[in-house]
Sequence to fold (303 residues):
Amino acid sequence: MTSRAAQYARYGGPEVLEIVEREDPQPGPGQVRLAVRAAGVNPADWKLRTGAFNPGDDAPERPVVPGFDVAGTVEALGEGVTTLAEGDEVLGGTRGGAQAERALADADALVAKPAALSWEVAGSLATVVSTAYRVLERLGVSPGQVLLVHGASGGVGIVATQVALARGITVIGSAGERHQDDVRALGATPVVHGDGLVDGVRAVTDRVDAVFDAAGRGSLADLVALAGGPDRVVTIAHPDAAEHGVEFSSGGGVDGALAEFVGQLAAGTFRAPEVVVYPLEEVGKAQEDNRTGAVSGKLVVIP
Ligand SMILES: NC(=O)c1ccc[n+]([C@@H]2O[C@H](COP(=O)([O-])OP(=O)(O)OC[C@H]3O[C@@H](n4cnc5c(N)ncnc54)[C@H](OP(=O)(O)O)[C@@H]3O)[C@@H](O)[C@H]2O)c1
Fold:
């Protein structure tokens, strides 16, 4: 059987993406094949596609199907998979290749999709949830302490803000002017990012115990100053991390995080990020809108 997938064979702008008809991928041991219902778009998709992680190379070793986050129906089981069955509705992370009609995922990276959750929201969650929980664990913030989430209006920031608040942590959330009300609606105190960040934060609190840099932009020196030292700051994207002695966190999740967050969403305790849907044919536009920030919310591709 064949099915459609987004694919690029050389690094570059959105124009290198094409929709191809290819043989369905076959699940290896521990994997399942999903009929994809929705695949999230993350900055990692276009950072990889532009070759930013492979300086000096013009092309990947073999064509790449982008996309890490997925929601779909289990269609085929690889050897040794006992926790899932054909027809199960699931969401979670892939090792890449989600922006397609069919994709492979490790069975243990998937959780059941509650009926209350739309496919679009389900497909948008894996990366932001695993990242948010991982960094909160690294920071080790306690109930009653004050956390600055820099980029509280972004995909990772929205998750981190809500999880921290639910743990009894006070959250100051930085965002652009247009997202101040969104951050307030999550239950955090909003401040505007940019040149006035330090004064803005100090106007609302005289204490910041830790900083989660979920934006990776703006002045890292400002974040270090607000936290009172680099050891209380963790970034997921700032290029100046090493220069400032700040921990850069990448990869890996926290056991149970996705199931917990999904459970809270289904119960109505947490809010999902807003999703904006693109057909698979517009995957290049979706990645580009994510790169430029032209469209707010979590962008999702539907095959
Ligand atoms: N290391 C990892 O494991 C990992 C995992 C996931 C993501 N990331 C990286 O983390 C970053 C955020 O990911 P995301 O999916 O949450 O992205 P996103 O949804 O696009 O959110 C970006 C956030 O950055 C804020 N922002 C934009 N311009 C800014 C500026 N000049 N100064 C300060 N803040 C600014 C945005 O605020 P407004 O829109 O309100 O202006 C928004 O809150 C990306 O660079 C991504 O590649 C890393």
Notes: The chain has a mean pLDDT of 97.
